Amino acid sequence: MEYAQTIFNDLAKRYDFFCQIASFFLDRFWRKRINSLIEPGEIILDLGTGTGELAFGINKAEKIIGIDFSWEMLKNAQLKNSKPANQHNEVEFIAADAQRIPFPVESFNSVVSGFVFRHLQKNINMILKEIYRVIKPEGKIIILEFSRPEFAFWRKIYYLYLDVIIPLIGRILFGKEKVKYFRYLQETIINFFSVGELKMILSNNGFRKVGYYPLMGGVVGIYYGFK
Question: What is the pTM of this model?
């Protein structure tokens, strides 16, 4: 996780632009799908909030608290939070570790997370126990994450894109010395849990009615479960 922290601190200034280019400007659409799963008036924790893109895409919550371990990402989130266009919710950003969420038991109706869980594999059970602790009864976890397409042909195209295009975009935007970061991001996607594995992990950590639905042919998916 320390290496991931270094990466996101280094990439913070242009990270949003990279995500837009690399996803063909679909990243905001994917995040907004989470908004459809939120009930009006919820209190939400955005775990691994980064620059706050997911938090600002939710417009029905009473309050959203975003936590992240990257100070540089949080600086960008705070700047966005000062803009009138982003003030439809009460949003607060805090530097915190997902392994030690600094809130009491049953503080949130939902915990959401966008493109973070593949960086948390090593300590995923500890982190899920923390998430379960802070969710209210009948509350939910919602995870937006990259996955591996089921169909072999589409998966080959996807892997080629990760192997060639993503590092190229990274080199253009950040310089050749940062290309290694994008190799790391590629590896986290390829080596992440399968859909079945992550669903089982969620179930084993107490979540019920666990489900998943794919976006863009399985390149991205939304996982969910209830306490």
Answer: 0.94
